[in-house]
Design goal:
five-stranded parallel beta sheet, 229 residues, four-stranded antiparallel beta sheet, 11 strands, Arc Repressor Mutant, subunit A, Rossmann fold, 2 domains, alpha/beta
Length: 229
């Protein structure tokens, strides 16, 4: 059973999410404040995903997200009453893998969780599965879901890892924004969506911090992205 941490200070919402996901065969643990959330994520090695509210006691969800991304790439889905587009963009920039606005349907939450976890589940079904992918100084270990640059750990969100994995599996392909979004998010792409652009910016910044001597991703203006020559 996949283990999911639900971080929600509203006891009734916390209970509803826990009960629903438990009924759908997930192992659920919960926290009601930001400090407990960080502690649990740091200590739970078998954690598969985190559902995180933004408005939490002691430490906000934004701070939890920032702290967790310093030591873990566990997938994080934000569930929040904050519906402004900028809030969603900021959360993605900080490392969130998805964002759902309250009130939400529990069935939709389940589908989003399944989409985030699907990539890992598909690994064992691929008989030609490559356990490692490399490009320049970048290396992805697909068994552990980790990445490194010149031997130094590269901490990525689930979506960032999936983007790099897709590009390294297709090293000569030019990906449009819609290609990347629909392949990684498994949802229809909307032209005004900035999600892919934000994720690409995050990936580039993380790569540059570890290796500023190489260019890894090239933007082909008006067309999309490809691995840099």
């Amino acid at each position: 059973m996949k283990k999911i941490l639900v971080v929600e200070d509203d006891k009734e919402i916390n209970r509803l999410i826990r009960d629903y996901l438990s009924e759908n065969q997930y192992d659920i643990i919960s926290a009601e404040n930001g400090l407990d959330a960080v502690r649990i994520i740091r200590n739970e090695n078998s954690l598969s995903l985190v559902i995180l509210d933004l408005m939490l006691p002691f430490q906000s969800g934004d701070m939890v997200l920032q702290k967790v991304r310093e030591f873990s790439d566990v997938p994080i889905i934000i569930v929040s009453a904050k519906s402004m587009v900028q809030t969603r963009i900021d959360a993605i920039r900080m490392g969130a893998d998805d964002y759902i606005t309250k009130p939400f349907d529990l069935d939709e939450l389940l589908v989003r969780i399944e989409a985030v976890l699907r990539r890992a589940g598909n690994k064992s079904d691929n008989s030609a599965y490559k356990t490692s992918l490399t490009y320049k100084k970048l290396a992805l270990d697909r068994n552990s879901g980790t990445a490194s640059v010149d031997g130094k750990a590269l901490v990525l969100t689930g979506k960032e890892y999936a983007i790099l994995e897709l590009m390294l599996l297709n090293p000569t392909k030019l990906f449009s924004k819609s290609n990347l979004f629909e392949s990684v998010w498994n949802e229809p792409y909307f032209k005004e969506d900035t999600t892919v652009k934000v994720h690409m910016s995050n990936i580039r910044n993380k790569l540059k911090k570890l290796d500023d001597s190489e260019e890894y991703i090239e933007t082909v203006w008006g067309m999309g992205y490809k691995l840099a020559d």
